[in-house]
Amino acid sequence: MSATPYPLRAALSLAASGVPVLPLRRGKVPFGNCRTCAGNACGGRPNMKSAGPCRCPGVCHAWAAATTAPGVIASPAWAAAWRQAVCAGYHPGGAGLTVVDLDNPAAIAWARETLPATRTVPTTRGEHWIYRGTMASHNAVRDGVDIKSAMAYTRYLGPGTGTMAALPDAVRALAVKEPATPCPAPHAVAVPARSGNGECRHRTPAYLDRGIAMAEQRITAASSAVHTTVYRTFLAVLSTHGRCDCLTDAHMARLFTAAQAKGESLRHCTDAWTNARTRLGL
Question: Which of 26, 98, 163, 277 has its Cα between 20 and 30 A from that of 246?
Answer without folding.
Answer: 98
